[in-house]
């Protein structure tokens, strides 16, 4: 049966109800035209919102000889990127499918026929005008309306509105639990016992165009433990089955990895810890959803009562029977509402209980990892207290989000001790992360971790005499400004340390919080990257330009966070390049990071870069400084794919600038030494030694 525009709202409501009843999956046919975006938006707002998973189908056409143009992974990623981003913002699980055929309609119909769980098909209307339609063969939407299996409803959308639709005559009755089980972890046992154990939930699978991703018998990721499955049977008022699961899931194009943690001597515990953390997050989300559902239920109930009370009219001949009937009906409604509210409260209580168990398991795992998986020098709290004279304010040299930093002496060595503030849960994760990273790697441009006190969250580092790069750029405590030669060298050293993290084995490491305050300078002004507590491992398969490693929340400092990572949660090694670009701009301007990229870009376009450079440096080399500014602006591009490669482009260019600065410094040294030698041979007009020292100091 075909429906016109006047029935569009009714059709949308009908298919939403059907999706709830059967737990169906919606497929959206997408292409490069604008109506594909309208179709996806309409589907999310009218259908997918009640069953948050869908299939994005794209058909690549070939000739009659069976030759197809195969998109490479980069092109496929670029094509699906706006659709994937829209689904991610709406909380929709999107499966991407590419079909190859010589006929678009035939490919889509065959796919729906072979995947019986697809109950709705949404397609954008054809772009051809009505005049051309009379002389050409039927377009794709018209063909799909006629040939799609009767078990699947078809909706044709144009400019965000439903143009035509055809309802399904009958459906395969699949429960929502069956459909969700294909996206979530398969389970065999519940976690009711206190002795329940969790195995490492890691699985890798390459998606094929026609893989049965949503079928219950084709699990993508499996774990031996299920957290909870709670269902509420359909009631007389038409409420649908509700199945809640606390299993974690991730969907990707090429590979799926869940629970990746930093490698240590124990390869299982970090994965388990991350899995428990994911379960905990899903539990919290489910509890919040149930509470909102209960709140909305009570609100709807009050609204309905008010409407009914306002619509009641007195009946002269039923003055006795009407109050009794109203009372009975109100009693039944109250009992039904109380029963439903009790069921929701019971489910919330069960979720809270499971959340507490997960937190206990996480705490036990963290404790085991802290004491068994990492090798480092351990200090007692008494050692730390004695070294800092009872945490004296006179030895306090800094304060950060993690906690205060003290200068001290341990084992006859000057050290900096960072102490965790009490009550900071996130700080414990950063503490463990920093120990695991810094204790397992050494590099001249990475700060050295000398030891730790795990009981109180104290980290002991080598002491850096010149503080942070931020302090030196802004001349804190009237320290002398850095010369342009030193700044060029520091820029190259930062890139070297960053590349070391990105090339870490077995998996690249993304810093996520690179900024001048986290770059330390020793007595020779050699830079060392610190504060890797927010760093995250990225699977090698996705550590390239087009990363699809999804993080649930962005971390870092506001002005330095990669905009694409902040918007989509997609993390990759080029996320650090945006932060690095902002740091480079601050190195040459010594200005705050807010809006700095726009200022420098305008200055470069107007050929007045010198006006925005740090005025404390009077001899900026014009060409080299302009080159450094352009490199920084390239790093600050909004899209990852537009940023240069660190190893192939950035580091070689920065090394050339470093060599230029070194050669200039050596020329000044030679000239100063030559002048000093000449004047020593002519004692009648000596040059004061203080003048020579000042010239050397300014040069480097």
From TrEMBL:
<protein>
    <recommendedName>
        <fullName>RING-type E3 ubiquitin transferase</fullName>
        <ecNumber>2.3.2.27</ecNumber>
    </recommendedName>
</protein>
<dbReference type="GO" id="GO:0005524">
    <property type="term" value="F:ATP binding"/>
</dbReference>
<feature type="region of interest" description="Disordered">
    <location>
        <begin position="297"/>
        <end position="321"/>
    </location>
</feature>
<feature type="domain" description="Protein kinase">
    <location>
        <begin position="391"/>
        <end position="668"/>
    </location>
</feature>
<dbReference type="GO" id="GO:0061630">
    <property type="term" value="F:ubiquitin protein ligase activity"/>
</dbReference>
<feature type="compositionally biased region" description="Polar residues">
    <location>
        <begin position="205"/>
        <end position="238"/>
    </location>
</feature>
<dbReference type="InterPro" id="IPR011009">
    <property type="entry name" value="Kinase-like_dom_sf"/>
</dbReference>
<keyword id="KW-0547">Nucleotide-binding</keyword>
<feature type="region of interest" description="Disordered">
    <location>
        <begin position="195"/>
        <end position="243"/>
    </location>
</feature>
<feature type="compositionally biased region" description="Basic and acidic residues">
    <location>
        <begin position="668"/>
        <end position="680"/>
    </location>
</feature>
<keyword id="KW-0067">ATP-binding</keyword>
<dbReference type="InterPro" id="IPR051348">
    <property type="entry name" value="U-box_ubiquitin_ligases"/>
</dbReference>
<dbReference type="Pfam" id="PF07714">
    <property type="entry name" value="PK_Tyr_Ser-Thr"/>
</dbReference>
<dbReference type="InterPro" id="IPR001245">
    <property type="entry name" value="Ser-Thr/Tyr_kinase_cat_dom"/>
</dbReference>
<feature type="coiled-coil region">
    <location>
        <begin position="341"/>
        <end position="368"/>
    </location>
</feature>
<keyword id="KW-0833">Ubl conjugation pathway</keyword>
<dbReference type="InterPro" id="IPR000719">
    <property type="entry name" value="Prot_kinase_dom"/>
</dbReference>
<dbReference type="InterPro" id="IPR008271">
    <property type="entry name" value="Ser/Thr_kinase_AS"/>
</dbReference>
<feature type="region of interest" description="Disordered">
    <location>
        <begin position="668"/>
        <end position="700"/>
    </location>
</feature>
<keyword id="KW-0175">Coiled coil</keyword>
<keyword id="KW-0418">Kinase</keyword>
<keyword id="KW-0808">Transferase</keyword>
<feature type="compositionally biased region" description="Low complexity">
    <location>
        <begin position="195"/>
        <end position="204"/>
    </location>
</feature>
<dbReference type="GO" id="GO:0004672">
    <property type="term" value="F:protein kinase activity"/>
</dbReference>
<dbReference type="InterPro" id="IPR014729">
    <property type="entry name" value="Rossmann-like_a/b/a_fold"/>
</dbReference>
